[in-house]
């Protein structure tokens, strides 16, 4: 055979190989599209969408770890919303959306492939250093439909065999586009459900107000009759009657107060569901008084369950500028939630301290309860809050976070399974301007 013929055969073989590689790639892309469409469009819960999308993305390109980050237009940050990998950052970790390779992919709205991440100056090295991971290669793609602005970033890293390349980008582009569409669909579905819930809550609030009217009116009549009876007792019985009257008036006051709180509680839940809230009404507020009121409201329930309620170091705290009703709701939520976690013989303690340097007071709400898993802890104060109560919505901790945010404060949680949980709330002493959510 001549050299010319040999060369022709080699060219023909090479062309055949390239055609086969393209066919294989297209087959993989079609298979990825089939899997992602089947997985995503049969589920509407956002958590399911993220779990399935990221799992399939890692599987089809053979990568070890990955994450989905959502963009927050208010804070201009990217947030780790779903992660897979042994040393991945926890859900809720954020960084500026113009940092790192993910930030570049988001800003440019285009995919980025990096084969040697540690040598790339764009890499956000602090993430690796903080969580002990070593990123070797990665692909970052903007989460967007075929057209439109990105809503986040899909990232996969550390291919098990070989390096991530443009062929992987082609497959991941399909997955990211389907994922973005499914995320939007899931969000719309959740908004519709929340709208329905908010409407029902509005009706319930009106019904509760109507049902409470006879109780409130009855309490007023009973109080009036007690005063009338006091005027007809013989002198030697006056002291005993006055003692009974004071006790009765305390109970009546609690009935009226709790009737009002129930109405406000339902309205607060409805506002949280709708993402709405009226501006806070700031005035001088003594935290000791608010904590005492919360504890007195919940004490009968605590005593029935054999749980101690304690308050420490609150007497010397200065007054702060706050919306007393909302602070009450926040502390009520935290203590009421803790009651469900603490066993007979346990305790819930609120401690106070003054942070002079930060011009703030700090409250710690500690319980000796069951504690919570990292998954539950990381979901707190977000729309993904996980409730372990039967029939629970998880809205309680979101209400608390909204109250703290409205006051320009901060809240954190420390919890350990079998040991207990401590929420720490920091509230500024003064409000420069009225804040709104």
In short:
The protein has 437 residues and is α+β, with helices and mostly antiparallel strands.
Give a quick set of tags describing it.
single chain, 437 residues, alpha+beta, Beta-Lactamase, 5-stranded mixed sheet
Describe this structure in words.
With 437 residues, this protein is an alpha+beta fold. Helices cover 51% and strands 19% of the residues. A hairpin with a 3-residue loop joins strand 12 (410-416) and strand 13 (420-428).
Largest sheet geometry: 6 strands, antiparallel
Which structural class matches the secondary elements? alpha+beta
In the CATH hierarchy, the architecture of the largest domain is 2-Layer Sandwich
Q: Do you know the CATH topology of the largest domain?
A: Beta-Lactamase
Q: How many domains comprise the coordinates?
A: 2
Query: What radius of gyration results from the CA coordinates?
Result: 30 Å
Percentage beta strand = 15-25%
Q: Helical residue percent?
A: 40-55%
First-residue to last-residue Cα separation: 82 Å
Order of helices and strands: HHEEEHEHEEHHEHEEHEEHHEE
Q: Count every beta strand, where a strand is a DSSP E run of 2 or more residues.
A: 13
Q: Write out the strand line-up for the largest beta sheet, numbering strands in chain order.
A: 3-2-1-6-5-4
| The CATH top-level class label of the largest domain | Alpha Beta
């Amino acid at each position: 055979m001549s050299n010319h013929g040999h060369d022709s055969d080699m060219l023909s073989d090479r062309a055949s190989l390239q055609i086969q590689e393209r066919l294989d790639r297209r087959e993989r892309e079609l298979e990825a599209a089939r899997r992602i469409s089947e997985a995503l469009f049969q589920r509407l819960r956002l958590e399911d969408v993220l779990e399935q999308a990221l799992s399939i993305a890692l599987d089809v390109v053979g990568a070890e770890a990955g994450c989905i980050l959502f963009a927050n237009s208010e804070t201009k940050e990217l947030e780790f919303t779903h992660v897979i990998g042994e040393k991945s950052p926890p859900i809720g970790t954020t960084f500026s959306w113009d940092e790192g390779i993910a930030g570049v992919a988001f800003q440019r709205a285009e995919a980025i492939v990096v084969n040697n991440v540690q040598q790339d100056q764009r890499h956000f090295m602090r993430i690796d250093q903080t969580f002990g991971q070593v990123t070797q290669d990665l692909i970052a793609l903007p989460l967007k439909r075929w057209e439109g602005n990105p809503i986040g970033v899909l990232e996969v890293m550390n291919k098990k065999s070989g390096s991530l390349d443009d062929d992987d980008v082609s497959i991941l582009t399909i997955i990211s586009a389907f994922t973005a569409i499914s995320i939007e669909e899931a969000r719309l579905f959740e908004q519709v459900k929340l709208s329905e819930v908010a409407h029902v809550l509005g009706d319930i609030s009106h019904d509760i107000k109507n049902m409470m009217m006879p109780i409130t009116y009855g309490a007023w009549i009973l109080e009036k009759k007690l005063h009338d009876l006091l005027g007809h007792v013989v002198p030697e019985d006056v002291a005993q009657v006055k003692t009974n009257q004071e006790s009765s008036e305390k109970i009546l006051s609690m009935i009226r107060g709790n009737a009002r709180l129930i109405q406000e509680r339902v309205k607060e839940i409805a506002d949280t569901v709708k993402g709405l809230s009226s501006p806070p009404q700031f005035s001088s507020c003594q935290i000791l008084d608010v904590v005492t009121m919360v504890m007195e409201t919940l004490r009968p329930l605590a005593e029935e369950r054999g749980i101690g309620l304690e308050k420490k170091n609150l007497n010397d705290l200065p007054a702060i500028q706050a919306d007393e009703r909302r602070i009450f709701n926040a502390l009520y939520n935290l203590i009421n939630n803790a009651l469900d976690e603490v066993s007979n013989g346990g305790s819930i303690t609120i401690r106070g301290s003054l942070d002079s340097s930060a011009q703030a007071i700090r409250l710690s709400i500690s319980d000796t309860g069951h504690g919570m898993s990292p998954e539950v802890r990381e979901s707190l104060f977000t729309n993904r809050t996980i409730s372990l109560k039967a029939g629970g919505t998880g809205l309680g901790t979101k209400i608390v976070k909204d109250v703290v945010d409205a006051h320009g404060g901060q809240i954190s949680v420390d919890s350990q399974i079998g040991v207990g949980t401590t929420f720490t709330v920091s509230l500024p002493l003064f409000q420069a301007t009225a804040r709104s959510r």
